[in-house]
Design a protein that fits this description.
The protein is of the alpha+beta class and about 130 residues long. The chain contains 4 helices and 3 strands. It has one domain: Ribosomal protein L22/L17 (Ribosomal Protein L22, Chain A), CATH 3.90.470.
Amino acid sequence: MGARKKNTAEKLREQKKSMYFAKLNNCPTSPRKMRLVADMVRGKNVNQASALLQYSKKEASLRVEKLLRSALANYEQKTGNSWEEADLFIKEIKVDGAGMLKRIQPAPQGRAHRIRKRSNHVTLVLDTQNKDLD
């Protein structure tokens, strides 16, 4: 590895130590459906986002709620403080497309239709409202 690449990798590693995030890879929900839920909670306070996800009817909201709880646990593990006392909000939530399972559906007259079962990757980043607590 070159020196420049090594230096940037070290900088990224240092930045990740002060970030509180969680990732969900290969979630078997279409990215479009997951983005609806992600847009609903982006920029919200953690308590408000948790309430929105808990009472939403969408199936994707259950997975995002679990991801939010994981990010909160990561915050507690990295800082040693309780997340209830910190003024946390969802700084960034990103939904990317993942691999696709391709299946065949029989159709009339010997034809076949392709079914694409989509999945996604979700990344959730938390941040504090006031930086004095860190």
